[in-house]
Design brief:
single chain; alpha+beta; 4-stranded antiparallel beta sheet; 10 strands; 10% strand; globular; ubiquinone biosynthesis; membrane
Protein backbone atom coordinates (compact mmCIF):
# COMPACT_ATOMS: atom_id res chain seq x y z
CA UNK A 1 0.00 0.00 0.00
CA UNK A 2 2.94 2.34 0.65
CA UNK A 3 3.84 1.83 -3.01
CA UNK A 4 0.43 3.30 -3.95
CA UNK A 5 1.44 6.56 -2.25
CA UNK A 6 4.64 6.63 -4.32
CA UNK A 7 2.68 5.99 -7.51
CA UNK A 8 0.26 8.85 -6.77
CA UNK A 9 3.01 11.33 -5.86
CA UNK A 10 5.05 10.62 -8.99
CA UNK A 11 1.95 10.72 -11.19
CA UNK A 12 0.91 14.00 -9.54
CA UNK A 13 4.31 15.47 -10.46
CA UNK A 14 3.89 14.29 -14.06
CA UNK A 15 0.38 15.76 -14.18
CA UNK A 16 1.64 19.06 -12.75
CA UNK A 17 4.35 19.38 -15.43
CA UNK A 18 1.93 18.56 -18.26
CA UNK A 19 -0.71 20.95 -16.88
CA UNK A 20 1.88 23.73 -16.36
CA UNK A 21 2.87 23.44 -20.02
CA UNK A 22 -0.79 23.85 -21.03
CA UNK A 23 -1.05 20.39 -22.58
CA UNK A 24 -4.65 19.97 -21.33
CA UNK A 25 -5.81 23.45 -22.34
CA UNK A 26 -7.31 22.39 -25.66
CA UNK A 27 -9.25 19.41 -24.33
CA UNK A 28 -12.98 19.71 -25.05
CA UNK A 29 -14.81 19.25 -21.73
CA UNK A 30 -18.38 19.20 -23.07
CA UNK A 31 -19.93 15.83 -22.36
CA UNK A 32 -17.24 14.78 -19.91
CA UNK A 33 -18.26 13.64 -16.42
CA UNK A 34 -17.76 16.05 -13.50
CA UNK A 35 -14.84 14.07 -12.05
CA UNK A 36 -12.93 14.76 -15.29
CA UNK A 37 -14.07 18.36 -15.86
CA UNK A 38 -12.84 19.54 -12.46
CA UNK A 39 -9.18 18.42 -12.92
CA UNK A 40 -9.16 19.88 -16.43
CA UNK A 41 -10.48 23.21 -15.08
CA UNK A 42 -7.74 23.26 -12.42
CA UNK A 43 -5.14 22.36 -15.06
CA UNK A 44 -6.26 25.40 -17.07
CA UNK A 45 -5.70 27.67 -14.05
CA UNK A 46 -2.05 26.67 -13.62
CA UNK A 47 -1.14 26.57 -17.35
CA UNK A 48 1.61 29.00 -18.27
CA UNK A 49 1.02 31.59 -20.98
CA UNK A 50 2.01 30.38 -24.46
CA UNK A 51 1.46 26.73 -23.60
CA UNK A 52 -0.74 24.29 -25.46
CA UNK A 53 -0.79 20.94 -27.18
CA UNK A 54 2.34 21.86 -29.12
CA UNK A 55 4.20 21.75 -25.78
CA UNK A 56 3.43 18.08 -25.11
CA UNK A 57 6.69 16.75 -26.57
CA UNK A 58 8.97 19.13 -24.54
CA UNK A 59 6.89 18.46 -21.42
CA UNK A 60 7.24 14.70 -21.77
CA UNK A 61 10.96 15.07 -22.46
CA UNK A 62 11.25 16.83 -19.07
CA UNK A 63 9.73 13.79 -17.36
CA UNK A 64 12.60 11.56 -18.47
CA UNK A 65 13.31 8.61 -20.78
CA UNK A 66 10.48 6.40 -19.48
CA UNK A 67 7.86 8.96 -20.40
CA UNK A 68 9.59 9.67 -23.71
CA UNK A 69 9.25 5.98 -24.51
CA UNK A 70 5.60 6.06 -23.44
CA UNK A 71 5.07 9.07 -25.71
CA UNK A 72 6.68 7.23 -28.62
CA UNK A 73 4.42 4.24 -27.96
CA UNK A 74 1.32 6.46 -27.77
CA UNK A 75 2.36 8.03 -31.07
CA UNK A 76 1.49 4.63 -32.57
CA UNK A 77 -1.93 4.63 -30.82
CA UNK A 78 -3.98 7.54 -32.23
CA UNK A 79 -7.09 5.56 -31.28
CA UNK A 80 -6.18 6.23 -27.64
CA UNK A 81 -4.78 9.79 -27.70
CA UNK A 82 -6.25 11.17 -30.92
CA UNK A 83 -4.55 11.87 -34.23
CA UNK A 84 -3.51 15.45 -33.33
CA UNK A 85 -1.74 14.33 -30.15
CA UNK A 86 -0.11 11.39 -31.95
CA UNK A 87 1.32 13.80 -34.52
CA UNK A 88 2.81 16.00 -31.78
CA UNK A 89 4.30 12.97 -30.02
CA UNK A 90 6.21 12.02 -33.16
CA UNK A 91 8.57 14.91 -32.29
CA UNK A 92 9.98 12.76 -29.46
CA UNK A 93 12.01 10.65 -31.87
CA UNK A 94 15.73 10.65 -31.08
CA UNK A 95 15.67 13.93 -29.13
CA UNK A 96 17.34 12.92 -25.84
CA UNK A 97 20.59 14.42 -24.59
CA UNK A 98 23.56 12.03 -25.02
CA UNK A 99 25.59 10.68 -22.14
CA UNK A 100 29.42 11.06 -22.15
CA UNK A 101 31.57 8.95 -24.47
CA UNK A 102 33.57 7.73 -21.47
CA UNK A 103 30.44 6.18 -19.96
CA UNK A 104 29.71 4.35 -23.21
CA UNK A 105 33.29 3.09 -23.31
CA UNK A 106 32.88 1.71 -19.78
CA UNK A 107 29.68 -0.15 -20.77
CA UNK A 108 31.41 -1.70 -23.80
CA UNK A 109 34.56 -2.71 -21.90
CA UNK A 110 32.46 -4.35 -19.19
CA UNK A 111 30.33 -6.21 -21.77
CA UNK A 112 33.32 -7.71 -23.59
CA UNK A 113 35.93 -7.74 -20.76
CA UNK A 114 38.47 -6.00 -23.00
CA UNK A 115 39.86 -2.48 -23.38
CA UNK A 116 38.13 -0.38 -26.02
CA UNK A 117 41.36 -0.18 -28.03
CA UNK A 118 41.37 -3.95 -28.51
CA UNK A 119 37.79 -3.91 -29.79
CA UNK A 120 37.68 -0.88 -32.11
CA UNK A 121 40.41 0.96 -33.99
CA UNK A 122 38.34 4.15 -33.67
CA UNK A 123 35.33 5.04 -31.53
CA UNK A 124 33.54 8.36 -32.05
CA UNK A 125 31.55 10.71 -29.89
CA UNK A 126 27.77 9.96 -29.93
CA UNK A 127 26.17 10.60 -33.32
CA UNK A 128 22.53 10.03 -32.19
CA UNK A 129 20.81 9.71 -28.81
CA UNK A 130 17.39 8.29 -27.95
CA UNK A 131 15.53 7.42 -24.76
CA UNK A 132 17.04 3.95 -24.34
CA UNK A 133 20.44 4.14 -26.01
CA UNK A 134 22.80 6.18 -28.14
CA UNK A 135 24.83 5.38 -31.25
CA UNK A 136 28.56 5.78 -31.96
CA UNK A 137 30.49 5.29 -35.20
CA UNK A 138 33.43 2.92 -34.89
CA UNK A 139 36.09 1.31 -37.07
CA UNK A 140 37.05 -2.36 -37.00
CA UNK A 141 40.29 -3.67 -38.50
CA UNK A 142 40.41 -7.42 -39.21
CA UNK A 143 42.74 -9.33 -41.53
CA UNK A 144 44.11 -6.05 -42.82
CA UNK A 145 40.67 -4.81 -43.84
CA UNK A 146 38.82 -1.84 -42.38
CA UNK A 147 35.07 -1.54 -41.98
CA UNK A 148 32.85 0.96 -40.25
CA UNK A 149 30.10 -0.08 -37.87
CA UNK A 150 27.33 1.55 -35.82
CA UNK A 151 27.59 0.76 -32.11
CA UNK A 152 24.44 1.15 -30.03
CA UNK A 153 25.04 1.45 -26.28
CA UNK A 154 22.40 1.12 -23.55
CA UNK A 155 21.96 4.06 -21.18
CA UNK A 156 23.37 3.27 -17.71
CA UNK A 157 20.83 2.54 -14.93
CA UNK A 158 17.95 2.91 -17.39
CA UNK A 159 16.32 -0.40 -16.43
CA UNK A 160 15.74 0.59 -12.80
CA UNK A 161 14.15 3.88 -13.88
CA UNK A 162 11.89 2.12 -16.35
CA UNK A 163 10.72 -0.46 -13.79
CA UNK A 164 9.68 2.28 -11.38
CA UNK A 165 7.92 4.39 -14.00
CA UNK A 166 6.17 1.38 -15.53
CA UNK A 167 4.76 0.63 -12.07
CA UNK A 168 3.29 4.16 -11.99
CA UNK A 169 1.82 3.76 -15.46
CA UNK A 170 0.22 0.40 -14.65
CA UNK A 171 -1.30 1.94 -11.51
CA UNK A 172 -2.85 4.81 -13.49
CA UNK A 173 -4.03 2.58 -16.36
CA UNK A 174 -5.78 0.12 -14.03
CA UNK A 175 -7.45 3.00 -12.18
CA UNK A 176 -8.75 4.60 -15.39
CA UNK A 177 -9.85 1.28 -16.84
CA UNK A 178 -11.73 0.41 -13.66
CA UNK A 179 -13.92 3.52 -13.70
CA UNK A 180 -14.31 4.33 -17.43
CA UNK A 181 -16.25 2.20 -19.93
CA UNK A 182 -14.65 4.04 -22.88
CA UNK A 183 -11.22 3.40 -21.39
CA UNK A 184 -12.02 -0.30 -21.15
CA UNK A 185 -12.73 -0.34 -24.88
CA UNK A 186 -9.39 1.37 -25.60
CA UNK A 187 -7.54 -0.96 -23.19
CA UNK A 188 -5.06 1.40 -21.44
CA UNK A 189 -3.59 -1.50 -19.44
CA UNK A 190 -2.85 -3.22 -22.72
CA UNK A 191 -1.11 -0.04 -23.92
CA UNK A 192 1.22 -0.13 -20.91
CA UNK A 193 1.72 -3.88 -21.34
CA UNK A 194 2.74 -3.21 -24.94
CA UNK A 195 5.20 -0.61 -23.68
CA UNK A 196 6.54 -3.04 -21.06
CA UNK A 197 7.08 -5.78 -23.64
CA UNK A 198 8.70 -3.31 -26.00
CA UNK A 199 11.02 -2.09 -23.25
CA UNK A 200 12.09 -5.62 -22.30
CA UNK A 201 13.08 -6.21 -25.90
CA UNK A 202 14.64 -2.80 -26.43
CA UNK A 203 16.80 -3.06 -23.31
CA UNK A 204 18.22 -6.42 -24.39
CA UNK A 205 20.05 -5.72 -27.60
CA UNK A 206 20.43 -9.42 -28.32
CA UNK A 207 16.69 -9.43 -29.06
CA UNK A 208 16.94 -6.38 -31.30
CA UNK A 209 19.82 -8.09 -33.09
CA UNK A 210 17.57 -11.12 -33.63
CA UNK A 211 14.82 -8.86 -35.03
CA UNK A 212 17.30 -7.22 -37.43
CA UNK A 213 18.57 -10.64 -38.49
CA UNK A 214 15.05 -11.97 -39.16
CA UNK A 215 14.11 -8.78 -41.01
CA UNK A 216 17.27 -9.12 -43.12
CA UNK A 217 16.49 -12.75 -43.98
CA UNK A 218 12.95 -11.80 -45.04
CA UNK A 219 14.18 -9.03 -47.35
CA UNK A 220 17.15 -10.79 -48.94
CA UNK A 221 15.35 -10.97 -52.29
CA UNK A 222 14.28 -7.30 -52.26
CA UNK A 223 16.73 -5.59 -54.62
CA UNK A 224 15.64 -2.09 -53.55
CA UNK A 225 15.72 -2.61 -49.75
CA UNK A 226 18.62 -3.09 -47.34
CA UNK A 227 18.84 -4.12 -43.68
CA UNK A 228 22.29 -3.68 -42.05
CA UNK A 229 24.06 -6.89 -41.08
CA UNK A 230 24.47 -7.75 -37.39
CA UNK A 231 27.97 -8.28 -35.99
CA UNK A 232 27.12 -11.02 -33.49
CA UNK A 233 30.68 -11.17 -32.10
CA UNK A 234 30.42 -7.55 -30.98
CA UNK A 235 26.83 -7.60 -29.72
CA UNK A 236 25.74 -8.28 -26.16
CA UNK A 237 22.90 -7.39 -23.83
CA UNK A 238 24.00 -3.75 -23.53
CA UNK A 239 25.79 -3.33 -26.89
CA UNK A 240 24.58 -3.81 -30.47
CA UNK A 241 26.96 -3.58 -33.42
CA UNK A 242 25.58 -3.26 -36.94
CA UNK A 243 26.92 -2.54 -40.41
CA UNK A 244 27.32 1.22 -40.87
CA UNK A 245 24.88 2.61 -43.44
CA UNK A 246 26.58 5.25 -45.56
CA UNK A 247 23.75 7.15 -47.19
CA UNK A 248 21.51 10.19 -47.18
CA UNK A 249 18.77 10.34 -44.56
CA UNK A 250 15.30 10.75 -46.01
CA UNK A 251 14.80 13.71 -43.67
CA UNK A 252 17.18 15.69 -45.92
CA UNK A 253 14.93 16.03 -48.99
CA UNK A 254 17.04 18.85 -50.48
CA UNK A 255 20.18 16.67 -50.45
CA UNK A 256 18.23 13.89 -52.15
CA UNK A 257 16.95 16.32 -54.79
CA UNK A 258 20.47 17.69 -55.46
CA UNK A 259 21.75 14.16 -56.00
CA UNK A 260 19.29 13.68 -58.85
CA UNK A 261 17.29 10.89 -57.18
CA UNK A 262 13.90 9.96 -58.66
CA UNK A 263 11.92 11.21 -55.66
CA UNK A 264 8.49 9.91 -56.82
CA UNK A 265 10.07 6.51 -57.48
CA UNK A 266 11.64 6.51 -54.02
CA UNK A 267 8.25 7.38 -52.52
CA UNK A 268 6.67 4.37 -54.25
CA UNK A 269 9.50 2.14 -53.01
CA UNK A 270 8.83 3.19 -49.41
CA UNK A 271 5.10 2.39 -49.62
CA UNK A 272 5.54 -0.89 -51.47
CA UNK A 273 8.39 -2.09 -49.25
CA UNK A 274 6.35 -1.52 -46.10
CA UNK A 275 3.29 -3.30 -47.50
CA UNK A 276 5.40 -6.16 -48.84
CA UNK A 277 6.92 -6.74 -45.41
CA UNK A 278 3.56 -6.50 -43.61
CA UNK A 279 1.47 -8.60 -46.00
CA UNK A 280 4.06 -11.01 -47.38
CA UNK A 281 6.21 -11.57 -44.28
CA UNK A 282 3.93 -10.56 -41.41
CA UNK A 283 6.95 -8.80 -39.84
CA UNK A 284 7.36 -5.07 -40.44
CA UNK A 285 9.35 -2.08 -39.20
CA UNK A 286 6.88 -0.16 -37.03
CA UNK A 287 8.93 3.03 -36.67
CA UNK A 288 9.63 4.03 -40.28
CA UNK A 289 10.04 7.77 -39.82
CA UNK A 290 12.53 9.79 -41.89
CA UNK A 291 15.30 9.51 -39.29
CA UNK A 292 15.30 5.71 -39.55
CA UNK A 293 15.43 5.56 -43.36
CA UNK A 294 18.42 6.22 -45.64
CA UNK A 295 19.13 6.08 -49.36
CA UNK A 296 22.45 4.34 -49.98
CA UNK A 297 24.93 5.29 -52.68
CA UNK A 298 23.76 2.22 -54.62
CA UNK A 299 20.21 3.58 -54.64
CA UNK A 300 18.76 1.16 -52.09
CA UNK A 301 16.37 2.11 -49.30
CA UNK A 302 17.96 1.18 -45.96
CA UNK A 303 16.27 0.97 -42.55
CA UNK A 304 17.83 1.21 -39.09
CA UNK A 305 16.63 0.92 -35.45
CA UNK A 306 14.71 -2.32 -35.00
CA UNK A 307 13.49 -1.77 -31.45
CA UNK A 308 9.82 -1.45 -32.51
CA UNK A 309 8.69 -4.16 -34.92
CA UNK A 310 5.17 -5.30 -35.75
CA UNK A 311 3.87 -8.81 -36.39
CA UNK A 312 0.77 -10.10 -38.16
CA UNK A 313 -0.41 -13.69 -38.18
CA UNK A 314 -1.47 -15.45 -41.38
CA UNK A 315 -5.16 -14.73 -40.75
CA UNK A 316 -4.54 -11.05 -39.98
CA UNK A 317 -2.49 -10.73 -43.18
CA UNK A 318 -5.31 -12.23 -45.22
CA UNK A 319 -7.84 -9.90 -43.62
CA UNK A 320 -5.54 -6.92 -44.14
CA UNK A 321 -4.98 -7.75 -47.82
CA UNK A 322 -8.71 -8.20 -48.48
CA UNK A 323 -9.60 -5.00 -46.62
CA UNK A 324 -7.00 -2.94 -48.53
CA UNK A 325 -8.01 -4.47 -51.84
CA UNK A 326 -11.66 -3.82 -51.07
CA UNK A 327 -10.90 -0.14 -50.48
CA UNK A 328 -8.86 0.03 -53.69
CA UNK A 329 -11.64 -1.57 -55.77
CA UNK A 330 -14.46 0.20 -53.84
CA UNK A 331 -15.98 -3.15 -52.79
CA UNK A 332 -17.20 -1.89 -49.41
CA UNK A 333 -19.54 -4.84 -48.94
CA UNK A 334 -16.56 -7.20 -49.03
CA UNK A 335 -14.59 -4.94 -46.68
CA UNK A 336 -17.48 -5.13 -44.19
CA UNK A 337 -17.81 -8.91 -44.57
CA UNK A 338 -14.10 -9.37 -43.85
CA UNK A 339 -14.43 -7.34 -40.64
CA UNK A 340 -17.25 -9.62 -39.48
CA UNK A 341 -15.39 -12.80 -40.54
CA UNK A 342 -12.38 -11.63 -38.56
CA UNK A 343 -14.53 -10.97 -35.49
CA UNK A 344 -13.57 -7.28 -35.41
CA UNK A 345 -17.23 -6.16 -35.31
CA UNK A 346 -19.71 -7.64 -32.78
CA UNK A 347 -22.26 -9.92 -34.52
CA UNK A 348 -25.12 -7.87 -33.05
CA UNK A 349 -24.56 -5.31 -35.84
CA UNK A 350 -25.55 -5.71 -39.49
CA UNK A 351 -23.02 -6.10 -42.29
CA UNK A 352 -24.96 -3.65 -44.49
CA UNK A 353 -24.80 -0.91 -41.84
CA UNK A 354 -21.08 -1.39 -41.38
CA UNK A 355 -20.55 -1.36 -45.17
CA UNK A 356 -22.32 2.01 -45.26
CA UNK A 357 -20.00 3.38 -42.57
CA UNK A 358 -16.95 2.03 -44.39
CA UNK A 359 -18.12 3.77 -47.56
CA UNK A 360 -17.86 7.08 -45.65
CA UNK A 361 -14.17 6.30 -45.17
CA UNK A 362 -13.47 5.02 -48.65
CA UNK A 363 -15.30 7.39 -50.97
CA UNK A 364 -13.18 10.48 -50.14
CA UNK A 365 -10.18 8.50 -51.38
CA UNK A 366 -11.71 8.10 -54.84
CA UNK A 367 -13.40 11.49 -55.23
CA UNK A 368 -10.35 13.68 -54.63
CA UNK A 369 -6.89 14.15 -56.06
CA UNK A 370 -4.12 12.25 -54.31
CA UNK A 371 -2.58 15.39 -52.81
CA UNK A 372 -5.93 16.37 -51.28
CA UNK A 373 -6.37 13.16 -49.29
CA UNK A 374 -5.44 13.36 -45.62
CA UNK A 375 -4.66 9.92 -44.27
CA UNK A 376 -4.69 11.40 -40.77
CA UNK A 377 -8.31 12.54 -41.23
CA UNK A 378 -9.26 9.20 -42.71
CA UNK A 379 -7.69 7.47 -39.73
CA UNK A 380 -9.64 9.72 -37.36
CA UNK A 381 -12.87 8.83 -39.16
CA UNK A 382 -11.99 5.15 -39.04
CA UNK A 383 -11.50 5.30 -35.27
CA UNK A 384 -14.83 7.10 -34.88
CA UNK A 385 -16.47 4.23 -36.75
CA UNK A 386 -14.79 1.63 -34.55
CA UNK A 387 -16.27 3.38 -31.49
CA UNK A 388 -19.71 3.59 -33.15
CA UNK A 389 -19.72 -0.16 -33.76
CA UNK A 390 -18.18 -1.13 -30.38
CA UNK A 391 -15.10 -2.60 -32.02
CA UNK A 392 -12.47 -3.71 -29.53
CA UNK A 393 -8.98 -2.29 -30.04
CA UNK A 394 -6.63 -4.64 -31.89
CA UNK A 395 -3.16 -3.42 -30.95
CA UNK A 396 -1.37 -5.05 -33.87
CA UNK A 397 -3.78 -3.49 -36.39
CA UNK A 398 -3.62 -0.03 -34.80
CA UNK A 399 0.18 -0.16 -34.96
CA UNK A 400 -0.10 -1.16 -38.61
CA UNK A 401 -2.53 1.67 -39.38
CA UNK A 402 -0.36 4.23 -37.63
CA UNK A 403 2.81 3.01 -39.37
CA UNK A 404 0.98 3.23 -42.69
CA UNK A 405 0.17 6.89 -42.00
CA UNK A 406 3.81 7.61 -41.04
CA UNK A 407 5.11 5.79 -44.12
CA UNK A 408 2.71 7.68 -46.36
CA UNK A 409 3.84 10.94 -44.77
CA UNK A 410 7.48 10.11 -45.55
CA UNK A 411 6.56 9.20 -49.14
CA UNK A 412 4.47 12.38 -49.57
CA UNK A 413 7.44 14.50 -48.40
CA UNK A 414 9.23 13.17 -51.50
CA UNK A 415 6.24 13.31 -53.86
CA UNK A 416 3.22 15.40 -52.77
CA UNK A 417 1.19 13.92 -55.66
CA UNK A 418 1.76 10.32 -54.56
CA UNK A 419 -1.39 8.19 -54.65
CA UNK A 420 -1.20 5.76 -51.72
CA UNK A 421 -3.84 3.42 -53.10
CA UNK A 422 -2.67 3.02 -56.70
CA UNK A 423 0.86 2.52 -55.34
CA UNK A 424 -0.34 -0.18 -52.96
CA UNK A 425 -2.49 -2.01 -55.53
CA UNK A 426 0.22 -4.13 -57.27
CA UNK A 427 1.61 -5.45 -53.98
CA UNK A 428 -1.79 -6.28 -52.49
CA UNK A 429 -3.19 -7.78 -55.71
CA UNK A 430 -0.11 -9.96 -56.18
CA UNK A 431 -0.36 -11.31 -52.64
CA UNK A 432 -4.09 -12.03 -53.01
CA UNK A 433 -3.53 -13.89 -56.28
CA UNK A 434 -0.79 -16.00 -54.73
CA UNK A 435 -2.47 -16.70 -51.39
CA UNK A 436 -6.22 -16.55 -52.07
CA UNK A 437 -6.37 -17.87 -55.63
CA UNK A 438 -7.31 -21.43 -56.74
CA UNK A 439 -3.89 -22.96 -56.01
CA UNK A 440 -3.86 -21.39 -52.54
CA UNK A 441 -7.32 -22.83 -51.81
CA UNK A 442 -6.15 -26.31 -52.80
CA UNK A 443 -3.16 -25.89 -50.47
CA UNK A 444 -5.45 -24.70 -47.65
CA UNK A 445 -7.70 -27.73 -48.17
CA UNK A 446 -4.69 -30.02 -47.89
CA UNK A 447 -3.60 -28.32 -44.66
CA UNK A 448 -7.16 -28.64 -43.31
CA UNK A 449 -7.19 -32.39 -43.99
CA UNK A 450 -3.80 -32.75 -42.25
CA UNK A 451 -5.05 -30.79 -39.22
CA UNK A 452 -8.19 -32.95 -39.05
CA UNK A 453 -6.12 -36.14 -39.17
CA UNK A 454 -3.91 -34.83 -36.33
CA UNK A 455 -7.01 -33.98 -34.27
CA UNK A 456 -8.44 -37.49 -34.79
CA UNK A 457 -5.18 -39.05 -33.66
CA UNK A 458 -5.30 -36.94 -30.48
CA UNK A 459 -8.97 -37.74 -29.72
CA UNK A 460 -8.34 -40.48 -27.07
CA UNK A 461 -6.03 -38.25 -25.03
CA UNK A 462 -8.45 -35.29 -25.29
CA UNK A 463 -11.39 -37.42 -24.10
CA UNK A 464 -9.32 -38.77 -21.20
CA UNK A 465 -8.39 -35.25 -20.02
CA UNK A 466 -12.01 -34.17 -20.34
CA UNK A 467 -13.17 -37.05 -18.15
CA UNK A 468 -10.64 -36.13 -15.42
CA UNK A 469 -11.75 -32.48 -15.46
CA UNK A 470 -15.40 -33.55 -15.21
CA UNK A 471 -14.64 -35.71 -12.17
CA UNK A 472 -12.85 -32.81 -10.44
CA UNK A 473 -15.78 -30.45 -11.09
CA UNK A 474 -18.23 -32.98 -9.66
CA UNK A 475 -16.04 -33.35 -6.55
CA UNK A 476 -15.88 -29.56 -6.00
CA UNK A 477 -19.66 -29.27 -6.49
CA UNK A 478 -20.38 -31.97 -3.92
CA UNK A 479 -17.72 -31.13 -1.31
CA UNK A 480 -16.89 -27.47 -1.96
CA UNK A 481 -13.48 -25.93 -2.69
CA UNK A 482 -11.30 -26.10 0.45
CA UNK A 483 -8.49 -23.64 1.06
CA UNK A 484 -5.46 -24.65 3.08
CA UNK A 485 -5.23 -23.05 6.54
CA UNK A 486 -2.04 -21.07 5.75
CA UNK A 487 -3.86 -19.58 2.73
CA UNK A 488 -6.83 -18.51 4.87
CA UNK A 489 -4.51 -16.89 7.43
CA UNK A 490 -2.55 -15.06 4.72
CA UNK A 491 -5.76 -13.66 3.22
CA UNK A 492 -6.88 -12.43 6.65
CA UNK A 493 -3.55 -10.69 7.28
CA UNK A 494 -3.62 -9.04 3.84
CA UNK A 495 -7.18 -7.77 4.42
CA UNK A 496 -6.27 -6.34 7.83
CA UNK A 497 -3.23 -4.58 6.38
CA UNK A 498 -5.34 -3.09 3.60
CA UNK A 499 -7.86 -1.72 6.09
CA UNK A 500 -5.13 -0.17 8.21
CA UNK A 501 -3.59 1.47 5.17
CA UNK A 502 -6.78 3.18 4.06
CA UNK A 503 -7.69 4.19 7.63
CA UNK A 504 -4.37 5.89 8.47
CA UNK A 505 -2.73 6.53 5.12
CA UNK A 506 -5.29 8.60 3.24
CA UNK A 507 -4.84 11.78 5.26
CA UNK A 508 -1.06 11.43 4.97
CA UNK A 509 -1.34 11.06 1.22
CA UNK A 510 -3.43 14.23 0.88
CA UNK A 511 -0.92 16.13 2.98
CA UNK A 512 1.95 15.03 0.75
CA UNK A 513 0.08 16.05 -2.40
CA UNK A 514 -0.73 19.52 -1.03
CA UNK A 515 2.91 20.08 -0.02
CA UNK A 516 4.10 18.88 -3.44
CA UNK A 517 1.74 21.11 -5.44
CA UNK A 518 2.38 24.30 -3.47
CA UNK A 519 6.09 23.70 -3.06
Amino acid sequence: MISSIGHVIRLARAGWILAREGVFSGVETAGLPLEMRVPLFLAGLIARRGGGLQRIAPAIARLGPSYVKLGQTLATRPDVVGVAVARELEALQDRMAPFPREVAVGVIEKAFSRPIGEIFAEFSEPVAAASVAQVHRAKIVADGKERWVAVKVLRPRIERRFRRDLGDMFFAARLVQKYSAEARRLKPVEVVETLARSMKMEMDFRLEAAAASEYSDNTQGDADFLVPAVDWNLSAREVLTLQWIDGTPLSDVEALRRSGVDLPGLGRTIIQSFLRHAVRDGFFHADMHQGNLFLTREGRLAAVDFGIMGRLGVKERRFLAEILYGFITRDYQRVAEVHFEAGYVPPSYRVADFAQAIRAVGEPIHSRRADEISMAKLLSLLFEITALFDMQTRTELVMLQKTMVVVEGVARSLDPQLDMWSTAEPVVRSWIEENLGPLAKISDAGQGIASMAHLVSQAPAILSRGARISEQLESWTAEGLTLAQPTVEALARANAARNRFWRYGFAFLLLLLVVHIWR
